[in-house]
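Good morning N.,

You mentioned wanting to compare the apo and holo forms, so I went ahead and generated the holo version with NAP. This is what I fed in:
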Amino acid sequence: MLKQKPVYDAIVVGAGFAGMYMLYRLRERGMRVRVFETGTSVGGTWYWNRYPGARVDTETMFYSYQFSEELQQEWNWPERYPAQLDLAAYARHVADRFELWPDIQFETRVSAAAWGEDQCLWTVQTEDGDGAQSSVAARYCIMATGCLSAVNYPKFEGLSDFAGETFHTAHWPEAGADFTGKRVAVIGTGSSGVQSIPVMAEQAAHLHVFQRTANYVIPARNRPLEPDEVAEIKANYPALRAQAKKSFSGNDFPVAGPSALAVSEEERNREYEARWTAGGLSIMATYADFQTSEAANETASEFVRGKIRQIVDDPAVAELLAPKQLFMCKRLCVGTDYYETYNRDNVTLVDISETPIERITPEGVSVEGRVYEVDVLVLATGFDAVTGALKRIDISGVDDITLREKWEDGPKAYLGLGISGFPNMFTITGPGSPSVLTNMIPSIEQHVEWITGCIDHMRDNGKTRIEAEREAEAAWVQHVNEVGDLSLRANCQSWYFGSNIPGKPRVVLPYSGGFPVYARKCEDVAAKGYEGFSLN
Ligand code: NAP
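and this is what came out, ligand included:
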């Protein structure tokens, strides 16, 4: 006899910060919700990215939920940028506090989701850790799969023949890894490499860093938070959060002026120096024309290059570490003792910008015919960002069209929230929303609250089916591209454009019009009865 599939009001895929909050909001409305999560606990990106030195690089008093005043008052962050363990503990605390655990099914991967027009339901296929398959059905399918979750495993020839241990920063074992006395190779110098390299260098007998592109790394200046500053922020949280939402990135970094070129070199460097000394990402907001004027951008680039030349003893190594591309072309990195690490005797920088890694041999990494012999290989090679996690699920919509087919030439989505041809599916921080260009947690909250409002509206109006209209979607995609093209970043190779993944179409993935403009657009769409969506 055919077993009846359990039917939920909503399936949520992923129990990171997006999935947890979505569950909380929907359940609050009395909906039956099931969350599926591949990991063994909550936290998403902060569950998987356990590499040495992993910590958030956004000020954490603001990289946290604000939906619950009690939560933000009771939780105490220990440091300016807490480590992965603290972030994972915070996620577990949220799951405890709001009793989320019973509705989350762990060690369960969503392999497929198929829309059924007849019953107006999604059927979601899952696989548990032993490969056993199940299926459940739901009216809504909400993808909380994360922007930086689908791991990019490079396809080096011979990788599987490597005789030592191999780790990927984004899939680090819970038990950790001990590099004491070992020869280690790390491939990749983005944020994950930048954070892990100084920590691994302290343990390893020798560390070889394979660098394809040098990045701009700003010192974090991490430190314990003082009780007084925490008390002050907590006393003013609502106003500070509201202020942050008015800023481009949702971070409230102070802008020194409209143009780096409108002030003297002396004044400009004083401003850069102050931000370098304070540490963190605020340097990216110093002048408003970094993304529109190459000359303005070059002033910030040259300031950081100057710092590298001061810090790194060997001028040849300093020159290799000095980025050639525009400032903020790629995501700015925040590190601790990153450049200082290259002054250590046990660290060697290997430039692979002109001569790529030929292959991995059982003994190590081969470049230009030379094998760098190592015991451990660390891949800090990043993610198939924004679209990767969605495309790895076999999703089929109206008329059995698959999401992979629809997005063959790049993602098409309306506001990064809905996709035409895929009714009753929502994506949290999907392509075409500001997502990775902003502080992620406020952006997640904005999406979850919009989706909740939309579902309320449907329920109040007796509607059961919502689908983004093709014309509205096309117009939004065009707008996202037009705004993206205005930025100097459009000339860069970066994961923002998918250029880190061989064969991935080059399309701007996040919306670069800023958080306030985007949030207003979403509010406007809702106020006009969900303009651009058809509701039945
Ligand atoms: P990433 O920024 O994409 O960096 C990957 C690195 O691997 C790059 O240096 C890349 O070189 C290199 N690489 C990739 N494939 C390669 C190949 N086949 N051969 C040689 N080198 C290769 O990835 P990530 O460092 O994991 O960071 C991704 C994003 O996650 C960050 O930008 C940030 O948004 C987020 N993140 C945040 C934090 C935080 O908050 N603390 C920490 C980590 C990550 P190319 O540049 O030449 O492609």
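The pocket of NAP is lined by residues 55-57, 148, 154, 169, 187-193, 195, 212-213, 331, 352, 357, 380-383, 436, 495, 500 (CB under 6 Å).

Happy to go through it together on a call whenever suits you.

Best,
F.
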